[in-house]
Design a protein that fits this description.
Helix content: 40-55%
Number of helices: 15
Distance between the termini: 27 Å
CATH class of the largest domain: Alpha Beta
Number of strands: 14
CATH architecture of the largest domain: 3-Layer(aba) Sandwich
Order of helices and strands: EHHHEHEHEHEHEHEEHHHEEHEEEHHEH
Shape: globular
Strand content: 5-15%
Oligomer: single chain
CATH topology of the largest domain: Aspartate Aminotransferase, domain 2
Length: about 400
């Protein structure tokens, strides 16, 4: 194991910003009342929660009452997708039609599949372009009047492609469908103005933008019918039962505030390092393929496919060199699988096993990029040889 450590997995999680830790700290042991109670201790905690709600509302350009706090991005996605689908059922709609794509996070795609299997909904998975993109015209070809929901992510977690959400949402609304977007990867990097995006629901998660894990939020447009999937108390205006986690909610808001105050610098910093990674790898590894859109991708995100390489083997070798990265392939013990997303984008198994995601962040340095560009080609060749043995 190398003594040098380079973290290039910011798309998976980011370190908590020290200013966020400082903002959260009083709410663990000083302002500890339950924000749903009525005494003074509770009112202090409630002020922290409501100030956080107002902060998110300013950044999202919505009303504070349209912000629902959750435990993570996956819960936010579930609340939106399940809530809209079940509301359609309650209105008497037979077999609500749910339109999404195979490139969605599993919190959306598996939820849609489960609703189809267990609750008599109809699931439609769109065909995406080879770079993970989708045009409004392509979406229009798959829509039917009265569709219940279209769910498409603002930016993809595996290949970094950014979709034209405003145009897609307009197309959905022309067919009377609600529109949900998973903005978990986009938060802190792209504009999240929900009025400009035209979405009905939008999900974020704190740990993607230097906030704490275990907290997220869902924008829910006023007037949208949403059946809660977590019942209990009347928290969050009846949309999500359960005691609010005041420290994490405060941390979520502080992290998002800092992210958007410093976004111009952050985007430029990340995009510069990302482009060096992309150019450097493509020049040093002639058969490497950049996955996702060349033009419309997240500033922090670089992703590649390498033919005849076991991505998990490559990750282990990079880890031995002190480099933390992510692979496109899902691996169960002794049973590596090709990336379903890359397969949906048209790559065959010889490529889909060999996905690699490198995502830069606030603390990433030029020296770290140079180190990765020096190490990766050699480790890739070793992994290719070992993969030939492992994969037969």
């Amino acid at each position: 194991m190398s003594e040098r450590r380079v973290y290039l997995d910011h798309s998976a999680s980011t370190p908590v910003e020290p200013r966020v830790v400082a903002a959260m700290s009083p709410y663990f042991s000083e302002v500890y009342g339950n924000p749903s109670s009525i005494h003074g201790y509770a009112r202090q905690a409630e002020r922290g929660v409501e100030q956080a709600r107002e902060t998110l509302a300013r950044i999202l350009n919505c009303q504070p009452r349209e912000v629902v706090f959750t435990s993570c991005g996956s819960e936010s996605d579930n609340l939106a997708v399940r809530g809209i689908a079940m509301a359609a059922r309650q209105r008497g709609k037979a077999r609500p039609r749910l339109v999404t794509s195979p490139l969605e996070h599993s919190a959306v795609s598996r939820t849609v599949s489960q609703l189809a299997a267990l609750y008599d909904c109809e699931s439609v998975f769109l065909t995406m372009a080879s770079d993970g993109s989708l045009s409004a015209e392509a979406l229009a070809a798959s829509l039917q009047p009265g569709d219940a929901l279209v769910a498409l992510m603002l930016a993809n977690n595996e290949v970094g492609t950014v979709l034209p959400i405003r145009e897609l949402a307009e197309m959905a609304h022309e067919n009377q469908a609600a529109f949900h977007t998973d903005a978990v990867q986009a938060a802190g990097q792209l504009d999240l103005d929900v009025q400009a995006l035209g979405v009905d629901t939008l999900a974020i998660s704190g740990h993607k933008f230097y906030g704490p894990k275990g907290v997220g939020a869902l924008f829910v447009r006023d007037g949208l019918e949403l059946v809660p999937h977590m019942t209990g108390g009347s928290h969050e205006e009846g949309r999500r039962g359960g005691t609010l986690n005041t420290p994490l909610i405060v941390g979520l808001a502080e992290a998002l505030k800092i992210a958007y105050e410093e976004r111009d610098w952050y985007v430029q910093h990340c995009a510069n390092l990302r482009d060096q990674l992309i150019d450097g790898i493509l020049s040093r590894v002639p058969d490497a393929v950049l996955t996702g859109s060349h033009e419309h991708r997240l500033p922090s995100h670089a992703s590649f496919a390498f033919q005849h390489v076991n991505g998990n083997q490559l990750l282990m070798q990079l880890d031995n060199k002190g480099i933390a990265a992510s692979s496109g392939s899902a691996c169960k013990t002794g049973n590596p699988k090709p990336s379903a997303l890359l397969m949906a984008m048209g790559y065959d198994e010889s490529w889909a096993f060999g996905g690699l995601r490198l995502s830069v962040g606030r603390q990433t340095t030029q020296a770290e990029i140079d180190y990765v560009l020096d190490v990766l080609p050699r480790e890739l060749e070793k992994a290719r040889k070992l993969s030939a043995v492992l994969m037969g």
